[in-house]
């Protein structure tokens, strides 16, 4: 699902030529284990046109400054999460900043509680600090959400506690439902969920989207990561929160004249992917177990977490990222097997990590197929 090159450090470092080579190689593969088949612009437009027919009445006028299809999307998301209202945003980075800023302004407090591995800290150039004048504090540095004891014992004040569900950089890990509710119950400040991948978290947590969202005072969801939309995000909360969020959206430059392509693709993604997510999450456990078994004899190799909490997880191998990228591209080009996406080097020399996304194309892979694919990759190394 994650096809955004900005989220692929290996591709960003390697440069456009490797991006184009990967695009062509994966697009030409007969079978893909991780992610979805890349589409060129013509294919993407054709797919959007076909799917949009079912997603929205195309005989209606386009949106203007957030009405029309954009408003229909906001209402759909609010209903899915059991929220009073929702606000569409062109990017999650903008939505996250504004959510934290609203809570900071309401409480007269410039500190916000984050995880050091969270998206605002790692992938947004700390925009909340540079543009919003906010400061982060960390109730925990462990690769998980903070415990009730850590919340109660923390000696810093803050305006809002942001919890990323799942915590991507830690391996797309989720708490249990009891752990999540205990942490939220221990918190006196407002709670904001960074739910970019909340859609697929319901199965591990064992509760519905409205039940999960009800634990937080505001929730952010993404339309392109899991749902395969063009772009965009939404914030949900009470009506006053959403009204304020829309005012700040305008100030931040997010009140675009027309955003109907992104809104249509988001509606189509909700229709297409939400019913499939359980099959992805279920099959991810099969794929992860097969990968772990196939890599058991490789010193330092690891699949994490096992079993996965969602349909995404990490694979670690004791090779440089550049060597793994080259071997993966050769496997795709020569054998038509697309096993993984881009790799990135870790702090430990010679150890690299990639993220696996089990989506539609992976459903046809058996455990035996996964083993054969890994053996073919290792042979190229």
Automatic annotation (TrEMBL):
The keyword Cell membrane does not apply. One of its GO terms (molecular function) is L-allo-threonine aldolase activity. Pfam families: Beta_elim_lyase. Keywords: Pyridoxal phosphate. One of its GO terms (biological process) is glycine biosynthetic process. One of its GO terms (cellular component) is cytosol. Its cofactor is pyridoxal 5'-phosphate. Residues 66-303 form the Aromatic amino acid beta-eliminating lyase/threonine aldolase domain. Belongs to the threonine aldolase family. This is Threonine aldolase.
């Amino acid at each position: 699902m994650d096809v955004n090159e900005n989220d692929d450090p290996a591709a960003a470092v390697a440069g456009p030529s490797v991006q184009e080579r990967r695009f062509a190689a994966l697009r030409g593969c007969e079978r893909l284990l991780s992610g979805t088949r890349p589409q060129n612009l013509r294919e993407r437009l054709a797919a959007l046109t076909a799917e949009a027919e079912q997603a929205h009445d195309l005989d209606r006028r386009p949106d203007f400054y957030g009405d029309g299809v954009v408003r229909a999307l906001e209402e759909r998301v609010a209903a899915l999460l059991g929220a009073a209202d929702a606000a569409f945003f062109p990017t999650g980075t903008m939505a996250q900043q504004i959510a934290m800023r609203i809570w900071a302004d309401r409480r007269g407090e410039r500190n916000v509680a984050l995880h050091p591995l969270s998206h605002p800290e790692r992938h947004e150039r700390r925009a909340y600090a540079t543009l919003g004048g906010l400061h982060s504090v960390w109730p925990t540095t462990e690769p998980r959400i903070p415990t009730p004891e850590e919340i109660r014992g923390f000696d810093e004040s803050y305006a809002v506690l942001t919890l990323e569900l799942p915590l991507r950089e830690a391996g797309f890990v989720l708490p249990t439902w009891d752990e999540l509710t205990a942490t939220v119950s221990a918190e006196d400040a407002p709670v904001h969920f960074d739910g970019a991948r909340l859609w697929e978290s319901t199965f591990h947590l064992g509760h519905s989207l409205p039940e999960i969202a009800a634990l937080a005072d505001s929730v952010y969801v993404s339309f392109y990561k899991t749902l395969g939309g063009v772009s965009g995000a939404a914030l949900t909360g009470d009506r006053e929160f959403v009204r304020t969020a829309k005012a700040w959206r305008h100030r931040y430059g997010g009140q675009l004249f027309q955003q109907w392509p992104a809104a249509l693709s988001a509606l189509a993604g909700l229709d297409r992917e939400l019913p499939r997510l359980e099959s992805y999450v279920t099959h991810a456990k099969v794929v992860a177990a097969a990968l772990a078994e196939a890599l058991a004899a490789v010193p330092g190799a690891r699949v994490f977490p096992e079993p996965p909490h969602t349909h995404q997880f990490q694979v670690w191998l004791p090779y440089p990222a550049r060597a793994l990228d080259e071997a993966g591209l050769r496997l795709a080009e020569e054998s038509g097997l697309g096993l993984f996406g881009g790799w990135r080097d870790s702090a430990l020399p010679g150890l690299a990590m990639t993220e696996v996304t089990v989506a539609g194309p992976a459903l046809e892979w058996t455990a035996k197929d996964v083993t054969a694919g890994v053996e073919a990759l290792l042979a190229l190394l």
